[in-house]
Amino acid sequence: MKDAKPTPAQLRDAGKALLITAGKAKALGVTVSDDMDEAAIMSSTVSKQMGDAAKGWTADQIAASFAVLTKDAKVEDNGVQSLGSPINMSDGAAAWNDNVFQSAGVAIKKEA
């Protein structure tokens, strides 16, 4: 399945995981940039906290160390909000248009 595309849920979950990882790293004073993936963020965080002791560690060791180092990290609100349910703007738009015409002194011809 080389052409498989991620589902919207998979994309949402991956984005959420990245934001949580970045938030934990930032809480420990690590600078996170847009070109960093989760592995790079974790590696940077562990390197900052552990220094040379973390050189040569495997990805699993980095991930485990990151989890321990950030277990009490307070992640700031990153401004991501649920989009919620869609709303119907047609009724409000019609009322707004009517008010605009009336305030301009333009008579509105209503269809019967």
What's the overall average pLDDT, rounded? 82
Q: What portion of the residues fall into strands of 2 or more residues?
A: under 5%
In one word, what is the shape?
elongated
Low-confidence stretches: none
Rounded radius of gyration (Å): 25 Å
Helicity, as a percent range: 40-55%
Largest sheet: none
SS summary, helix count: 4
Structural class: mainly alpha
SSE order: HHHH
How far apart the termini lie comes to 58 Å
Key features of this structure:
about 110 residues; mainly alpha; 4 helices; about 0% strand; elongated
What does this structure look like?
- It is a single chain.
- This protein has four helices and no strands.
- With 112 residues, it is mostly helical.
- Helix 1 (8-27) packs parallel to helix 2.
- The model has no long low-confidence stretch (mean pLDDT 82).
